[in-house]
Amino acid sequence: MKLIFAAFLLLFSVTNIYSQKAEKDSISRKKITLIKINDAPKIDGILDDEVWKNAPVAEHFIERNPANGKPESPDFKTTVKVLYDDTGIYFGATMIDPHPENIQKQLAERDDIGNDDVFGITINGYDDHQQAVLFFVQASGVQADAKIMSTANDDFSWNAVWFSAVKITENGWTVEIKIPYSELRFPKKEIQTWGINFIRMIQKTRQNLTWNFVDNKKATYLMYDGILEGIQNIQPPLRLSLTPYFSTYFNHFNGKSTANFNGGMDIKYGINDAFTFDMTLIPDFGQTSFDNSILNLGPFEQQFEEQRSFFTEGTELFNKGNLFYSRRIGGQPSVYPETSVDEKVTEYPSKVKLFNAFKISGRTNKGLGIGFFNGITEKMEAQILNEKTGETRNEVVEPWTNYNVLVLDQRFHENSSVTLVNTNVVRDGNFRDANSTAFLWNINDKKNIYNYFGALKGSWVMDDGTKFGSRGQVGFAKNSGKNRFSFDGNYVTKNWDINDLGFSTSTNFANYNSYYGYRILEPTKKFNNIYLNFNVNYYHRLAPYLFTNLVINHNNQFTNKNFRSYGGGFELTPFGENDIYEPRTAGRFSKKPSYLNTWIWTESDSRKKFQYNVNFDYYAYNETGRNLVNLSFYLRYRFSDQFNTIWRFNPSFSNNETGFAGKEGTEIYMGKRQRNTYENSLTSQYTFNEKMSLSLAFRHYYSDVTYKSFFTLNEDGTLTPTSQFNKNLNGTYNSWNVDLRYSWWFAPGSQLTLMYRNAVDDYLEISRMKFKDNFNTLFNEPMVNNISLKLTYYLDYNQAKHWFKKKD
What we know:
Layout: H1 2-17, E1 31-33, E2 57-58, E3 62-65, E4 78-84, E5 88-96, E6 118-124, E7 131-138, E8 143-149, E9 163-169, E10 172-180, E11 191-202, E12 207-210, E13 226-232, E14 240-253, E15 256-270, E16 275-281, H2 309-312, E17 343-347, E18 354-363, E19 368-377, E20 380-386, E21 392-398, E22 401-412, E23 416-427, E24 433-444, E25 450-462, E26 466-478, E27 483-492, E28 509-520, E29 527-541, E30 546-560, E31 565-572, E32 577-579, E33 590-592, E34 595-603, E35 610-621, E36 627-638, E37 643-664, E38 667-689, E39 692-713, E40 719-721, E41 731-747, E42 750-764, H3 771-778, E43 784-792, E44 795-796, H4 797-807
Parallel strand pairs: 1-13
Antiparallel strand pairs: 2-4, 3-12, 4-5, 5-10, 6-7, 6-11, 7-8, 9-10, 11-12, 11-13, 14-15, 14-43, 14-44, 15-16, 16-18, 17-20, 18-19, 19-22, 20-21, 22-23, 23-24, 24-25, 25-26, 26-27, 27-28, 28-29, 29-30, 30-31, 31-34, 32-33, 34-35, 35-36, 36-37, 37-38, 38-39, 39-40, 39-41, 41-42, 42-43
């Protein structure tokens, strides 16, 4: 409680200090003043409506990349007209191009940026230079939208409902856009002043231009928006939308087939102009992509990406502090049942069912962001069979559980913020409860040259007593100019544990990091840009002190005039490592030899039909016969603007690595092993138009491990050969899946998705099988076949009420 109180006190004291608006830097801001209209233009991509004739115009774009600060060429002039009414804001852009037949317009799925010319708009309703909403329209007509932040933690999972149309003309291309006020956030005032900028990307020349000049040498993009004014006395409509869904699933596995039907609804309600309430009723999370499983020999669990839209959309506030890992909600049960000698578990739930969830988020006109998330999961039971008596019993493996996240994020000084985050997990009965709290700060000076950042976090786990852990960070950085640097220190105590609602791995350590970077962003005779950086990181065990590692690293990247990129670097650990995690026992460590890691990579011009990326990564250890080779190949061929194929191949060969083998009593055994891994995937996509696409993905993952010898781990981290441990730990893991997906956005915010999945995996306690035998064994396993159809329909209250009026 002392930590929470101190965080609150500091939050509001710092807010009070900076409550007055900081003096603006000498950043020049263009201005556009709007006029209100009564008759809305038709959104068809043709700017021939009468209302466009006298509309205010934004023009004279300036190049951001590659020649930062260069005025636009008259041959590629851009003009943007802007209007508004009581329902939303309208944009009409004209982009001149002397060769319209060469305008790039590859079709892609919504939110994917293809090989396209692009027109974009960023709108900051609070004019605070810290967060904006981004709307992209590609020359193909495909939409993309996101929430962008000064911290560069952009959220492309956010989806708005807005309207656009494009038209290729004899002089270039045009676009019309309407953005309803329901998709924007702004304070409740009679007269609005927003931050705004317009973006044009010309793909054939790889130019990125903006209306208001953006200086790449310092600060962030959001510090350089222009000003939109003139919107006044508007009466935004009620923000209420319903998204009902219907889904059906057919599953076949090992001779058994099941089918089920589901229905439910997502609700989005605008509490006021700034805050939104989101809720999912009878949630359906069945239709998501496969997790890419691997053979995990490390000491920590594998982390998976979130693929459920409710947990990815509009969660930028909840992700602050990295305390919220949404896969914990509706994941595996928290315990496994205890059984007697005669018992075995016959049914165990793979996932916990989510009962419902809601979130409230928004920001006041004084810059205070508030987010609250709540989710409830159902009680889950396992079934246990007594093989001697034939009786069965059920045991609760996950009780009814309540998950909460609270975030308070105060912005100030136009470019700084302090944040308080709290997560809480309460389980019914005598199960484990948990709580975590974090206070974060990110403070920039007025000119956005220097940055002070840090965090103080605490975790409490209540399970047969209370366990408290903490984590902290403090740092200082220079984030502008050609020469940049940063210094920071971190610590994590041994009891740090946020794994009930977050994701944490390493504990009981401290590290100190330094960084120097050199950037050339202006084109030279041979290069468009150059990035160089150097890093030094020192690690030690926190208690008791033990040196663990010193890592020295260098990276470089070059992009030439033909937009080919290449680079490389090196990393070395001159003193080796005392690994405190691989022995899987507190207080023990194993010695790893020093290594020199070198890598080189190259990537071709993405504008071409054929694109490749090749990476070679080699670790040379100071130990006879020990090395690690990682390779990656990426090949993409674009057959047309509608059809493209991508092949990825990632082989890895680890020779004579040493890892944990087992534990018997107080003895810890380590093994020397050979490990070969191949990950192979092929993805093809055919996009019919800007709203409909079909994709087919294959993935095969193969990893085998062969143990050569075993050792006992000594107290000083060294190894002694042993013949006492002779378990067979050799193994081969295979995973194969096929994913066919059809997507159709048949109306704004409404989607039909059809998916077919075929998957199989196996693990064998042998290794070094012939490739043919390996495949024969894999495909003798029963396969999972799944077909699913999901239909979601977006209903806006304001549109629906007009339907009823027409009927009347």
